[in-house]
Amino acid sequence: MAFPTDLLIFSPNDIDLSFSPLRQTLRADTYILGAFNPGLARLPNGNLLIMIRVAEALRQPIVGEQIHAIRWDEERGYVLDAYPLAGVNAADPRKFQVLGYPYRVMALTSLSWLLPVELSPDGTQVVTVHYDKIIAPQRAYQEYGVEDARITKIDGTYYMTTCSVSSERHSTTLYTSTDGLNYTLHGIILDHQNKDMVFFEGKIDGKFYALTRPLGDLYFAARPGSDYFPGPSINLASSPDGLHWKPSDEPFIRARKGSASTMKIGGGTQPILTDQGWLLLYHGVELKGLVGIYRTFWALLDANDPRKILKIEDVTPILEASPSLIEPLQDQLYLSDVVFTTGIVDAGDDYIVASGEDDLACRITHIPKTAFRLD
């Protein structure tokens, strides 16, 4: 599907590494593996903000018979941890599995931090790269980085959820801001491996609502003849204050047989209220290769009761990875077939949608509102 505007707005080549927080204590040679998965919001001045996940990686993680991981330490800052090559599986360039445990244990050859970048009101030009407002690890539960921001503005406050990664837990953390640029960390709001948490852009009956997506290594079989596959699903939760969350008892969006997203699904954009109900874009993954094929699908929910799904489009994607867009960065690619949509704002006749492209760069797409219809 062709759109009036579809471009890569920011890539690793646009980052000045001299501003990296890792430079404070790390002396190893690093590079930008990816600048991707941007949270999206409109600032008070009318410009757009993309909060970019910057994955900064070791250029040579393997030295001799050892492989190294980057870690943030509360006392020493950014450090390298060495593991014997014979004791790991290093097939993935982004991470390695530490062998010898009865469960899967990973370490990262990169560490992610967040970079706020201000765009023009239509999202087609970079206005300012806010290196002075970088969000980096500051607590032990973020020792392996801060990832995948989602931003929702509610009653004048910007609520930003992120994934914080550590040996303690892989959790969802909350930041808030009154101006969209300066954020305060409030800590963990969802515990281990509950990813892709996204606040609805507005309250319902005085409560916050959010999409969540718990992960795990064990799932139970669906009943014989079920329309759904067992596995990760998008769930609903509500909260009186944005900090304490009650999961909905009813199942929500699940991997449906006959869809193009049977491997894994997860929340994408913040749900926004339209004249047809709550609109949300989410990712669905088709099994293929190392990570699968990531595409973007959409759903409309009842305005007063978001548990009611009015329409779901899980067969024909609204967005797919675009080889022509990423072609100028071909020499930096390490993945393909991945579009990971992470933000949406209203722009009159269109929605401006922000996505990560191939875990490498930030993509901005203008999608006409007529693409999302109940009939």
TrEMBL record:
<keyword id="KW-0808">Transferase</keyword>
<dbReference type="InterPro" id="IPR007184">
    <property type="entry name" value="Mannoside_phosphorylase"/>
</dbReference>
<dbReference type="InterPro" id="IPR023296">
    <property type="entry name" value="Glyco_hydro_beta-prop_sf"/>
</dbReference>
<dbReference type="GO" id="GO:0016787">
    <property type="term" value="F:hydrolase activity"/>
</dbReference>
<comment type="similarity">
    <text>Belongs to the glycosyl hydrolase 130 family.</text>
</comment>
<keyword id="KW-0378">Hydrolase</keyword>
<protein>
    <submittedName>
        <fullName>Putative GH43/DUF377 family glycosyl hydrolase</fullName>
    </submittedName>
</protein>
<dbReference type="GO" id="GO:0016757">
    <property type="term" value="F:glycosyltransferase activity"/>
</dbReference>
<keyword id="KW-0328">Glycosyltransferase</keyword>
<dbReference type="Pfam" id="PF04041">
    <property type="entry name" value="Glyco_hydro_130"/>
</dbReference>
